[in-house]
Amino acid sequence: MEKKIEKRMEKGEELENGKRVETQPESEKDMRMIREVAKLTGVSIRTLQYYDEIGLLKPKRREGSRYRLYGKEDLERLQQILFFRELDFGLNEIKELLKENGDNKKELFHRQRELLTAKRDRLNGLIRLLKKLERGEEALSFVEFDLSGYFEMLERFRTQNPKKVKKLFGSLEMFDWTVEKIRRKEQTLGKKVAEQYGSVENFTRSIEDGFQQAENLMDNPWIQRVRACYQELASDLSRNVGDEDVQDIVKEIVQIGETKLHATGKAWEFVAKAFQENPGIIEGNDLLYGKGGTEYIGRAFAYYLDSVKQGREKEGSFTN
């Protein structure tokens, strides 16, 4: 890997403090054709053509010709692509990463070094484990699949993105509580991660992608309204859960959920039951709604479901 990267870097990088130094535009004679780039980097011509087709690496083209010409910036971008491919990132992920960090090369290099170092350490641990097994030693240990890198990612996410954390979890306290619950199950979770994802790095990257998808989801105005409704429900615990204004809020949540968010009756049954009976859910959600807020919401939904059930029974008696 190192020799390949050194070969890909033999042209050098004109960077100063992580930023590109302005250079004169390249002349056509300084550029490379696709077969030259393939020979230099070890990347096949077909792969380079595919990168062009999907917009991941689009070289210049000789005027009046179909031939691709690769300049220094193209080679630098290809270098970044190869780094991330070495880390098993998907092509769409790489495209987004390069777009996000296009103007901050230093940060991109730092992140790649961190990821490569973590992968190296993980592989070294697995090699040591395999050597023990080859010698016939007992090695029923899952230390090699520990989640320290995952928890470091969560801590870094919390520190660097407090607004995003609040947006996704409702509060920093709720995020901390969730992480602590995961820590308590680290040994069991580590084994499952090893089985399902193959490595902690793959699992961590999946969670990071999940954060991004969840953030996009939270921008949905209907979800924002539902979250506000839950807060309204818990804003005054002195009200009777059967009061009209309380039940109007529940009805609004149900209507939005079923018409805009594809929720079903099972979702409301879960809220009615779990919000009253599940200690973990009560403890966590009380961080959002205040002490007693979760159980109050559960009772409000239980009242709503009972009312719906009674209404259906009455309708049935009339039809009979």
Strand tally is 5
In order across it, which strands form the biggest sheet? 3-5-4
Radius of gyration: 27 Å
Helix content: over 70%
Description:
With 320 residues, the chain is mainly alpha-helical. The chain is built from 16 helices and five strands. It has helices at residues 2-8, 34-41, 45-53, 72-86, 91-100, 105-134, 148-160, 162-169, 172-184, 186-197, 200-218, 221-233, 244-260, 265-277, 279-289, 293-319; strands at residues 15-16, 19-20, 32-33, 60-61, 68-70. A three-stranded antiparallel β-sheet has the order 3-5-4. A two-stranded antiparallel ribbon has the order 1-2. The radius of gyration is 27 Å and the shape is elongated. Residues 1-24 have low confidence and may be disordered.
Write the layout of secondary structure elements.
Layout: H1 2-8, E1 15-16, E2 19-20, E3 32-33, H2 34-41, H3 45-53, E4 60-61, E5 68-70, H4 72-86, H5 91-100, H6 105-134, H7 148-160, H8 162-169, H9 172-184, H10 186-197, H11 200-218, H12 221-233, H13 244-260, H14 265-277, H15 279-289, H16 293-319
Antiparallel strand pairs: 1-2, 3-5, 4-5
In a nutshell, what does this entry contain?
It contains 16 helices and five strands.
Core attributes:
two-stranded antiparallel ribbon, three-stranded antiparallel β-sheet, disordered N terminus, mainly alpha, 320 residues, elongated, 5 strands
